[in-house]
Structure formats: structure tokens, C-alpha cells
Design goal:
Blueprint (H helix, E strand, L loop, with lengths): L2 E7 L4 H15 L13 H9 L2 H8 L3 E6 L11 H21 L4 E5 L10 H12 L5 E4 L19 H10 L3 E3 L11 H19 L2 H4 L5 E3 L10 H10 L5 H4 L4 E4 L5 H10 L5 E2 L22 H6 L5 H15 L1 H9 L3
Parallel strand pairs: 1-2, 2-3, 3-4, 4-5, 5-6, 6-7, 7-8
Helix pairs in contact: 4-5, 5-6, 13-14
Length: 340
Amino acid sequence: MIIDCHGHQTIVPQPHLDYREAQKARLKDPSLPVPPRPDMSDDEIREGIEANQLKLLKERGHDMTIFSPRASRMEPHVGDAQTSLDWSVACNDLIRRVMDLYPDTFIGVCQLPQTPGGTMENSVQELERCVTELGFVGCNLNPDPSGGHWNSPPLTDRYWYPFYEKMVELQVPAMIHVSGSCNPAFHATGSYYIAADTNAFMQFLQGDLFKDFPDLKFIIPHGGGAVPYHWGRYRGLADMLKKPDLAEHVMKNIYFDTCVYHQPGIDLLFDVIDIKNILFGSEMVGAVRGIDPQTGHYFDDTRRYVDALNLSDEDKYNIYEGNARRVYPRLDAYLKSVGK
């Protein structure tokens, strides 16, 4: 199988978008009624999926996508805790409906109802709901709910521990993923995303989180941000900080995806990072949607770059399927339950 670990529902029915706008309107005018949950037909959901993710998935020969709500529209910095919770529930329930329509193709990971300065209590509860009731296999954890102002504790702080305990209990990993940027100094996908990926890795390096949670698993997307390109820097910093070698200190718990949109970048990722720490991903219909004029192919058609590496059959299996099944044990259990 070819399992894409990084997909977002970037195209959604209009009623879902209208619901969000109604939420925002009520934040400006609290006298407005609480908006009702959006009413959408299966055909409306199919229209967006079949013309976009499903179409490209078939064209590129992928089999399954680990699917989550659109990252840039998670917007935990908008409104209060209740607004974030209501929005997350609506987004996650929509992912479940996609799973129901295409059970062989999409499996969910959830958006979390985080909020700047808030606790992780709602996130713990929503993760449990999504995993135990909706059949999701993971979550997207935002290290900066402020939307680009970085006022949350580092990911190694005990602030996050109740959520990590629930992750371990449920046997689910988290993809580290920020949302849209409300800070004009950060372009969302070109700067903020990559900076957040890099920052998360450095926080893990500085701390000792995995001594407390040896079974915790994180996927750092977009090829690990700047980390593989500066691998010597991080090895050197670990040495300066009197930390163990990175292979022992963090790389038993951290994985990178292949959302790197040119061949030299993929080549470097595989030269530097161990195969066991790389999961195939594309984030298709996401950050970069155009065709590369140098190749004539979509930038986010990452399978082409991986196939060009001439990997062994064993390494190909691990990149495209085996590593995902190991990092997402609930995905593995689901696939086994349907004979795959």
C-alpha cells in the first residue's frame, strides 16, 4: 500500500464555511444567536473530495490518506475556548463523514480545541471522543495556539503532560502542526509552518520529554522543517547541551514526512535521516498547489521524488506503508481488520 500520512480537507462544503463565518460574527456581536451546526448532504461532501484529493490520489497511485481538517483554518487564536471546541467538533465530524463515504481511502486524525492561555482539558476530551467514538488514529497538535506570537510553554513543559498521558493511553501519535498566522511577520506556509517544525525539534532536543514518555510519538511535517538541512548544527547543539546522541535522545520518538517539494530536498532528507524515521506524505491540495515549470509535474507530487531514489524493496515498503503502520498502531489495527 501507499499511505500518505499528511492530508487535509482543504475543500469543504459551503455550509461548513458559513458556519465558521457565523461563529466569527457572533464573536463580534455576542447578541447574535449561537449558530446551528451546518447541514450538509453527502453529495456536497463528495463534490469537494472527488474533484480534488480523491482525483489526485488515484492519478498518483496512492491507496490511503491520513486525513485531517484544513490546518490553516484550525485558527485556535480566534475566539474563546467554547468557540474553538465547537469549531473543532464540527471539523472533526466532517472528517468522519468523509471516512464513512470512502472507508478504504481516508482515515481521520483530529483537530484539537486549543486556545491561547487555555488548558488542554478540552483537547484531551476531544482526542478521546475522536479516537474512541469516531475511529481516528491520531491528532494534529499545535505548539503555538496564538497564531504566530509564541506565548505558549515549550512542548517539553508539564503544561502539555495531561495531553501526552492521553496520547500514550490511546496509543496515538501527534503531528506537530500550526495553523494560520495572524502575525504579519510570518507567512503562514512559507515561514510559520517551517519555523514551527524547526522550533518543535529544538524544544525536544533541549528537554528530556522522552524519559518521561518513552512511548510518545510525534511526526514533524514538511520534511522536518530546517532540521535535516542543518543536521550537523543539531548534533553539535546536543553535544554542547550535554545531551545524548540524537539517535538515542529524540529519534526513537520523532518522525519526518516527505512533504518536500523538489528532488534535491528529498535526496538530502534521505541522505541524512534514517529510513525508519521517514513517513511518506504529500499534503496534496495544500500549501503548494501549482505545477513546477522545471519538471512539468505538480510540486506536491512527492511520490515521484521518492520513486526516483531507487530504494530497495524493503525500504520502499517501510516508507510507503510499514513506518505508517508502526507509528499509527490504530491504523495498523484498522487495516488488519479489513484484511489489508
